[in-house]
Write a structure and sequence with these properties.
β4 and β5 form a beta hairpin. The mean pLDDT is 94. This protein has one domain: Rossmann fold, CATH 3.40.50.360. It contains six helices and nine strands; from the N terminus they run βαββββααβαββαβα. The two termini are 26 Å apart. α1 packs across α6. The chain is of the alpha/beta class. The longest helix has 23 residues. The protein is globular. The strands form three sheets. A five-stranded parallel β-sheet has the order 2-1-3-6-7, sandwiched between helices. A two-stranded antiparallel ribbon has the order 4-5. Strands 8-9 form a two-stranded antiparallel sheet. Bound molecules: flavin mononucleotide. The site of flavin mononucleotide has 22 residues, from α1, β4 and β8.
């Protein structure tokens, strides 16, 4: 058993958060960290990890339910771990303008977990693709007729990932001191 690993756990409906999670994992690997990436719902125990990066998209102003269940299920272990969160996200032509409001919404959703103190929370752009909609959203004509778009900013995501190792170290030091 190795207790020094980082877990990237993600919730997704249409796959874009999974792609971000895999990119986050690759980048952390490149930075020399040992990383595993898993869907939230497949994670049963956190004892092998020192840090968790949770990826969760917003749907209808709520965190994806797999992320909510993950936080509830693992609360006891998460309070002792370093946690960072990324969440998507605004998409389409108004993505940048919407980001401020979405950020407030995201902070309110995370604030429901009063015990959760992430070392970093990053709002990322979302991807919309009508071909990837799942039930019940694939039954909504207005959604099915909307154009595809992808507001994920990979350079911004990479920069965020690169900020994490220092944050991990700082927060370990401050909790030890
Ligand atoms: C039906 C529906 C509702 C959504 N609701 C929100 C929302 O409330 N806030 C937001 O910022 N993004 C919202 N989005 C955008 C998604 O969060 C975005 O497309 C994200 O990239 C999806 O992630 P996934 O592909 O991992 O499921 C919504 C998308 C759909 C299709």
């Amino acid at each position: 058993m190795q207790e020094n690993k980082v877990l990237v756990a993600y919730a997704t409906m249409s796959g874009s958060t999974q792609e971000i999670a895999e990119s986050v994992s690759q980048e952390l690997n490149r930075l020399g960290l040992t990383v595993e990436v898993h869907p939230c719902r497949e994670v049963t125990d956190l004892k092998e990890y020192r840090a968790v990066i949770l990826g969760a998209p917003l749907y209808m102003f709520r965190l994806h339910k797999d992320a909510v269940h993950f936080l509830k299920r693992h609360q006891k272990q998460l309070v002792h771990l370093l946690v960072a969160v990324f969440a998507g996200g605004p998409y389409g032509p108004n993505a940048a303008a919407d980001a401020l409001e979405v950020r407030k919404n995201l902070d309110a959703e995370l604030g429901k977990f009063t015990w959760l103190q992430p070392i970093s929370v990053q709002l990322v752009g979302g991807r919309f693709d009508p071909a990837r909609l799942r039930f019940p959203y694939n039954l909504i004509p207005a959604l099915k007729g909307s154009p595809t778009s992808d507001a994920r900013d990979w350079a911004e995501i990479q920069a965020w990932v690169n900020s994490l190792p220092d944050l991990f170290e700082t927060n370990i030091t401050s909790s030890a001191g």
